[in-house]
Amino acid sequence: MSLCNRVPSTCPGKGRGRQVIAVARTADVVIMMLDATKGEVQRSLLEKELESVGIRLNKHKPNIYFKPKKGGGISFNSTVTLTQCSEKLVQLILHEYKIFNAEVLFREDCSPDEFIDVIVGNRVYMPCLYVYNKIDQISMEEVDRLARKPNSVVISCGMKLNLDYLLEMLWEYLALTCIYTKKRGQRPDFTDAIILRKGASVEHVCHRIHRSLASQFKYALVWGTSTKYSPQRVGLTHTMEHEDVIQIVKK
């Protein structure tokens, strides 16, 4: 979904901007289209607005165990050395949220802000790809600087530069797998692929083809990188990989 009509200063809720940008919470990946000629102003503004609706870009969920209790006070433990938080600071943060009985276990060195995210519990962690457009209007040195930034791609829609690489990165960030099917005695159909999440099994392929196919499944023949030899006879639990070819045999 495109959120191109973003209202400036959406955080205060002007023009229902906060509700519009909160739609990104349901996305699989955020593609942030930026103008390479305008520096980092756009990026910092959009990141701030996404942070305000509980979206954390290119971050993983803090490895902190937190469980409120009915009594017993605050139990604090950590399995690693903490450099950003202390037991006293954790207690102060919990008291600010009117929590006086809880069990807290830090399994990694997290910041106070990350601990607050765990307490609130409604944060969404998702990948973000920063796409800098109009690179034909800036110097080569600036293009090189932007391209070396983490999670960034430089393109030019007007001159159609680097669009193929952008598609490759989108495929990688969405963690998709392309599976081709084959009928007995025929060549694989490379014109109509089945798109699944990375890590999908033969059973997922069956369900995508027809909901009753898994119950009629006998075995499958698979060609590709997921097998030791081609073709290999596999069962429903076999994990498929990108551009594998599968032939399903029914009972």
Molecular structure report:
By secondary structure, this protein is α/β, with parallel strands linked by helices. It folds into three domains: 15-58 and 127-174, 3-Layer(aba) Sandwich (Rossmann fold), CATH 3.40.50; 64-120, no CATH class; 176-250, Ubiquitin-like (UB roll), CATH 3.10.20.30. The chain is built from seven helices and 13 strands. The chain has helices spanning 17-21, 41-52, 87-96, 112-120, 140-147, 163-174, 202-209; strands at residues 30-35, 55-57, 64-68, 74-78, 102-106, 124-126, 128-133, 152-154, 176-181, 189-197, 217-223, 232-234, 244-250. The strands form four sheets. It has a five-stranded mixed sheet. It has a three-stranded parallel sheet with strand order 1-7-8, sandwiched between helices. α3 crosses α4. The longest helix is centred in the N-terminal third of the chain and has 12 residues, at 41-52. The protein is flat.
Tell me how many strands there are. Answer: 13
What is the CA-based Rg, rounded? 24 Å
Mean pLDDT: 88
Spatial separation of the terminal alpha carbons:
42 Å
Main sheet attributes: strand count, strand direction, barrel closure: 5 strands, mixed
Strand order of the largest sheet: 10-9-13-11-12
> Helix-strand pattern, N to C?
HEHEEEHEHEEHEHEEHEEE
Number of helices: 7
- Could you tell me the strand content as a percent range? 25-35%
Low-confidence stretches: none
Q: How much helix is in the residues?
A: 25-40%
Q: What structural class do the secondary elements suggest? A: alpha/beta
Shape descriptor: flat
Number of domains: 3
CATH-defined architecture of the largest domain: 3-Layer(aba) Sandwich
User: Would you tell me which CATH topology of the largest domain applies?
Assistant: Rossmann fold
Q: What is the multimeric organization of the chains shown?
A: single chain
